[in-house]
Amino acid sequence: DDDDDIPQLSSHTLAALQAFYLEQQQREGIKTSQGFNQYSIGSIEEDWQLSQFWYSDETASCLANEAVAASGKGGRIACVSAPSVYQKLKEQDGKDFSVCILEYDRRFSVYGEEFIFYDYNHPLNLPENLLPHSFDIVIADPPYLSEECLQKTAETIKYLTKGKILLCTGAIMEELAAKHLGVKICKFIPKHSRNLANEFRCYVNYASGLD
Fold this sequence. Notes:
Elements: H1 11-32, H2 57-71, E1 75-80, H3 83-91, E2 97-103, E3 115-117, E4 135-140, H4 147-160, E5 161-170, H5 174-181, E6 184-185, E7 200-204
Parallel strand pairs: 1-2, 1-4, 2-3, 4-5
Antiparallel strand pairs: 5-7, 6-7
């Protein structure tokens, strides 16, 4: 019989395989059900090729709360290349503020009208309805630790903000951050969900709650 040459899975292996597929289906089912929180950190996985590193839950919460406090009642908040702060802000649904996310990664288009495609290489290539100086605070985390990236992102920040800036970038960028945005380093030290080789810091140009 030709079937004799076909390798057969043992009943134990077959059961394990079925359990694996069932778990996968259940996981996907949770993601597509209403109970899945699309705004939770990690709902969209990091893409290291895009230099994406999500903040820890505690850091994202701290930065989101700072943004809400700094923007004031009815405030407008822009998150530039800082999706985990955007997600944490959206978890506070019902609070009196509005927020949008400027991001190169089009996976974040699942957030609808609040998503704005953004490429730091073209810092002012923004939608017409994104009016200059229309945000009470801009939170930004430039994807690369280079002066070119910071300088171009700074153009976007200065276009969007009414004044307040919260920048997250490497400690080695302190002098350049002061040069391009007039921001000073805070005592608060941001953490990422995965440890990074470079020391990260926060910088602001106003009296913040991060000191």
